[in-house]
TrEMBL record, chain A:
Its main location: cytoplasm. GO terms for cellular component: checkpoint clamp complex; cytosol; nucleolus; site of double-strand break. The keyword Lipoprotein does not apply. Keywords: Cytoplasm, DNA damage, Nucleus. InterPro entries: DNA_clamp_sf (IPR046938), HUS1 (IPR016580), HUS1/Mec3 (IPR007150). Component of the 9-1-1 cell-cycle checkpoint response complex that plays a major role in DNA repair. The 9-1-1 complex is recruited to DNA lesion upon damage by the RAD17-replication factor C (RFC) clamp loader complex. Acts then as a sliding clamp platform on DNA for several proteins involved in long-patch base excision repair (LP-BER). Component of the toroidal 9-1-1 (RAD9-RAD1-HUS1) complex, composed of RAD9A, RAD1 and HUS1. The 9-1-1 complex associates with LIG1, POLB, FEN1, RAD17, HDAC1, RPA1 and RPA2. The 9-1-1 complex associates with the RAD17-RFC complex. HUS1 interacts with POLB, HDAC1, FEN1, PCNA and RAD9B. HUS1 does not interact with RAD17. Interacts with DNAJC7. It is found in: Cytoplasm, Cytosol; Nucleus. This is Checkpoint protein. The lineage of its organism: Eukaryota, Metazoa, Chordata, Craniata, Vertebrata. PANTHER family: CHECKPOINT PROTEIN, MITOTIC AND DNA DAMAGE CHECKPOINT PROTEIN HUS1. The gene is hus1.
From TrEMBL, chain B:
This is Cell cycle checkpoint protein RAD1. Pfam families: Rad1. The keyword Nucleus applies. Keywords: DNA damage, DNA repair, Nucleus. One of its GO terms (cellular component) is checkpoint clamp complex. The lineage of its organism: Eukaryota, Metazoa, Chordata, Craniata, Vertebrata.
Automatic annotation (TrEMBL), chain C:
This is Cell cycle checkpoint control protein. Residues 308-327, 362-371 have a biased composition (Polar residues). One of its GO terms (cellular component) is checkpoint clamp complex. Keywords: DNA damage, Exonuclease, Hydrolase, Nuclease, Nucleus, Phosphoprotein. It comes from Gouania willdenowi (Blunt-snouted clingfish). The lineage of its organism: Eukaryota, Metazoa, Chordata, Craniata, Vertebrata. GO terms for biological process: cellular response to ionizing radiation; DNA repair; DNA replication checkpoint signaling; mitotic intra-S DNA damage checkpoint signaling. Residues 333-343 have a biased composition (Acidic residues).
């Protein structure tokens, strides 16, 4: 089991750092899954039990100038590590101006993902900084819990408005209520609603568009008909807080009264986030 | 941009008060200056809107938004009054983030149907519309501080800049803020008496920060620090402040606030003195 | 006593007080012949700092008439005099410091722009002289660097980090966060290596490693950065204090920080005392891409249940340092009543606070009495015969 990667391009480094920071905003620990082509950050909460789950996929070639790995075995050519994305994010943030950054699986006082960087100096010798992020190696027999979640059989799929606008609205609604209802239809309309003893607030978004794969598997659904999910506002806020870069596409799928499935697509990375609906 | 959803099912006819602003910040900003308690009493007259917040029967803050500030102000009665939760109202007014970016403002239409009905806000920014219905209560009678200019003993008008510095440095371990106004030295003095000693801030009457100095009698009064603390919110937004005391030692602080469109609004605080102080 | 500070020096004074506030809760003020001394010490006496402002720093400096005077006061209250640090330079034109012994108060008067006069009358307590016993000139390892180098170094460590270890070889200096034994499997370890030519001065006598608190260093960095003064660092062996100083023609600042009496196991191994030719700690050499030594030999098939993953990890952690490794100079806080120096060997070796006691490695040259508490670095015993 070996892993080693190297990033030289500063834009790639910044981007990788942003992705990890986004993950860090969503969860305290997650699994980093390495395959020959991809890196995944995985959180496999049981949506049925009220937990959130997350699936973030990066194509290694878009981030790493060098990337070598040997998995557990030739049949199972993968490595799964549990780590704190916050640690990794902090390590990457302090090396933003590095000449190059290496990310390696190392054996130190415990298994670690070691981020080492060569920092520019005025002297002839580079300054070298290493961060050892402790990890826990996930044994092969637990890998089945880390499979990509299947896209749920949603009732409505809709593109999201600018995430910054959505974040502003959700931040204020968070001050007023603990729960929020997201509802949307196949006519490009989405509403965010809260209701308390003191106030009711509804924000109406329209002309958002619906992704071509459509929704309502049974077909012939009423385009005006709303599918809704009532969710813990903090979950949605966490998700929006982590989105630092405008994505190529952002959409949400709603399984009526069951799941809010958020999808953010960048050119070289994708993030899925599942928030369970509450009664 | 017109409020697209302004009245599909809500006919304007049914409202006794309709007020519109192109920029909701012109209302939310000035309300922030008095937001130290949740309960706010709204009093609308054909002259505009007055919003009152009180604390402990010892402090009262009023924000005045004259009719000229609004793009539309329709009132069907001589006086319309109701009470709402100010914190909730402010969150609603800033639902789109309250951005200060040029060219991006939240349009507001505020409607009230009368006793028992909610205060309804239609807010719109960049084509997105938010509708808020805030529950209202019957207004309480605001306290009459009976502060009239004929009883004013001392008065100074300062540029807010100079008072901001003092207020940001106030020793909060002091229970009171003592204000001395006098025709002779120290002219205008703010004093605190904290755990580790006392501090005096003296403003010269000839300072270029002093716009007006009209003190006739030496007066020293103490005011509870905790009561005065919220006034810093108004101070922060203002460009000038007038400090007045009357014969009973009551304090009036009037703040001149300039909004995004350069219009002037006023915020006023009244505060009871803490105790009689023997003059030193 | 009367002092007048003008112009940019007001900010220098304010920054010095601010950095002293990172050390302790009280400010010790002592007007001396050679200038105004401002000092502070932390509650466990493991950190001490002193600024001495020479008479020339002031536009007027006069001592109290005919007798020695010293006092202490809450440092917070002095900080509040200079609360708006950022705008101080623009707003304050002159600062008077005046002693009123009748009223037991020290008065700071700030003459500000627009004729605003701020008067702070601060009450004080009489105090003994606060004197630390340290001898930076006698230290074997001496370094000097521009503040930026150290600022760029500490930025790699999280604000919450308490202690940092510094180790040196002939031409390298390593900074590493100090991690307690029990946290080793979950804490992130950061190590930064600086080459000697990044320093203005780099003299190593012994390949040692010392561990001390980062908070106080950060405090001094704020001061050094705003005044642009280079920082000098002096240390010897683990257990003896590290001294950080800044100096120019009109002021001198010394921060004296306790170091861990005996460092954690792995570091000790790599920096054996008395073996100055020993190789530097194994560095993750960046140019060498050989990853084999770092392979994780983990047999996942052997693991029948979840806990195994962690049990596999414990194999890697070094065996517990035996208590015998204790330095005889350890001193225990709970036992402030001074006891025989070796009694603490029954204390759990992992106790965090063990790091924070000064071992007295210096003969108490400054104390004429063989006090039993000579280990305490900063002494404010009522006898000021030092």
């Amino acid at each position: 089991m070996k892993f080693r990667g190297k990033i030289i391009d500063i834009a790639c480094l910044n981007h990788f750092s942003r992705v990890v920071t986004t993950i860090a905003k969503l969860t305290k620990t997650c699994v980093l899954r390495l395959t020959p082509d991809n890196l995944f950050f995985v959180l496999s909460g049981k949506v049925a039990n009220g937990g959130v789950s997350m699936w973030c996929e990066l194509s290694q070639g878009n981030f790493f100038d060098e990337y070598q790995m040997e998995g557990v075995s030739s049949e199972d050519n993968e490595i799964c590590l549990e780590l704190s994305p916050e640690n990794l994010s902090r390590a990457l943030k302090t090396v933003q101006n590095a000449k190059s950054v290496k990310v390696k699986l190392t054996k130190k006082h415990c298994p670690c993902v070691t981020v080492s960087a060569e920092l520019p100096t005025l002297s002839s010798v580079s300054r070298v900084v290493t961060h050892d992020v402790p990890v826990e190696v996930i044994p092969r027999r637990l890998w089945h819990e880390l499979k990509e979640p299947s896209v749920p059989d949603f009732h409505v799929s809709i593109y999201l408005p600018p995430l910054k606008t959505m974040k502003n609205v959700v931040d204020r609604m968070k001050n007023l209520s603990n729960f929020l209802v997201v509802e949307a239809n196949l006519n490009g309309e989405m509403n965010l609603k809260i209701e308390t003893d003191l106030v009711s607030v509804t924000t109406h978004f329209k002309d958002l568009g619906n992704p071509p794969w459509g929704g309502g598997s049974e077909g012939g659904a009423d385009p005006e008909g709303m599918a809704e999910a009532r969710v813990d506002i903090r979950r949605l806020q966490q998700f929006l807080m982590g989105q630092q870069v405008t994505p190529t596409k952002a959409m949400c799928n709603i399984v009526h009264q069951r799941i809010l499935h958020l999808v953010v697509l960048h050119d070289d990375a994708s993030l899925q986030y599942f928030i369970p609906a509450v009664a | 941009m017109p409020l697209s959803t302004q009245s599909q099912d809500d006919n304007d006819e049914q409202y006794i008060l309709v007020a519109s602003l192109d920029n909701a910040r012109n209302l939310s900003n000035i309300l922030k200056a008095i937001a130290f308690k949740d309960h706010a009493i709204f009093t609308a007259t054909p002259n505009g809107l007055k919003v009152t917040v009180e604390d402990s029967k010892c402090l009262q803050a009023n924000a005045f938004i004259q009719v000229e500030i609004f793009q539309e102000f329709t009132i069907k009665e001589d006086l319309v009054g109701f009470q709402v939760n100010l914190t909730v109202l402010l969150d609603c007014l800033n639902i789109f983030g309250g951005s200060t970016a040029p060219g991006l403002s939240t349009a507001l239409r505020m409607c009230y149907r009368g006793y028992g009905y909610p205060l309804t806000l239609f807010l719109e920014e960049g084509g997105v519309v938010t509708v808020c219905k805030i529950n209202t209560q019957e207004p309480e009678e605001p306290i009459d501080f009976d502060f009239c200019s004929s009883n004013v003993i001392n008065k100074v008008i300062l540029q807010s800049e100079s008072l901001k510095e003092a207020f940001s440095e106030l020793d909060m371990t002091s229970e009171v803020l003592q204000i001395t106004m006098s025709p002779s030295q120290p002219y205008f003095r703010l004093s605190t008496f904290g755990n580790s000693g006392n501090a005096h801030y003296d403003y010269s009457k000839d300072s270029d920060m002093m716009e007006l100095f009209k003190c006739t009698t030496t007066q020293t009064n103490r005011y509870k620090m905790l009561l005065l603390k919220p006034t810093t919110k108004a101070l922060a937004l203002s460009c000038k402040v007038s400090v007045r005391t009357d014969s009973r030692g009551f304090l009036s602080l009037q703040y001149m606030v300039r909004n995004d469109d350069g219009q002037i609004c006023f915020v006023e605080y009244y505060c009871c003195p803490d105790e009689e102080v023997e003059e030193e | 006593m009367q002092c007048v500070v003008t112009g940019g020096n007001v900010k220098v004074l304010a920054k010095a007080i601010h950095s002293l506030s990172r050390i302790g809760d009280e400010l010790y003020v002592e007007p001396q012949q050679d200038g105004l001394a401002l000092r502070s010490v932390n509650s466990s006496r493991s950190a001490y700092a002193c600024f001495l402002f020479a008479p020339l720093f002031f536009s007027r400096y006069s001592l109290p008439n005919g007798h020695d005077f010293r006092c202490k006061m809450a440092i917070k209250s002095v900080q509040s005099v200079f609360r708006s640090l950022a705008t101080l330079e623009k707003t304050v034109e002159k600062c008077h410091i005046e002693l009123d012994e009748q009223k037991n108060r020290l008065t700071f008067t700030l003459h500000c722009k627009h004729g605003l006069l701020k008067t702070h009358n601060l009450s004080y307590q009489d105090s003994e002289s606060l004197q630390a016993v340290f001898d930076k000139e006698g230290c074997g390892n001496v370094f000097r660097a521009q503040p930026r180098l150290l600022v760029d170094t500490v930025v790699h460590f999280p604000p919450s980090l308490e202690e940092v270890s510094v180790s040196v070889s002939d031409n390298r200096m390593w900074f590493r966060n100090h991690v307690d034994e029990e946290e080793r499997s979950k804490a992130m370890v950061t190590e930064l290596c600086l080459a000697s030519d990044e320093f203005d001065h780099f003299a190593v006598h012994a390949h040692n490693s010392v561990t001390f608190c980062l908070k106080e260093l950060r405090g001094l960095l704020v001061f050094a950065e705003s005044t642009g003064l280079p920082i000098s660092m002096y240390f010897d062996e683990p257990g003896s204090p590290v001294v950080l100083s800044v100096t120019d023609s009109v002021l001198e600042g010394n921060f004296v920080l306790a170091t861990l009496s005996h460092d954690d196991h792995s570091f000790q191994k790599n920096n054996t005392k008395g073996a100055p030719t020993a190789p530097p700690p194994p560095l993750d050499d960046f140019m060498n891409d050989d990853m084999d030594p770092y392979l994780i030999a983990m047999d996942t098939s052997m693991a029948p249940g979840t806990p195994e993953a962690s049990s596999a990890l414990t194999v890697c952690s070094p065996p517990q340092t035996p208590a015998a490794n204790h330095s005889t100079r350890l001193h225990c806080e709970e036992e402030e009543e001074e006891e025989e120096e070796t009694v603490d060997s029954d204390r759990p070796p992992n106790k965090k606070f063990r790091s924070l006691f000064f071992g007295s490695v210096f003969p108490s040259q400054m104390s004429t009495q063989p006090l039993p508490d000579q280990d305490v670095l900063a002494s404010d015993s009522e006898e000021d015969d030092s």
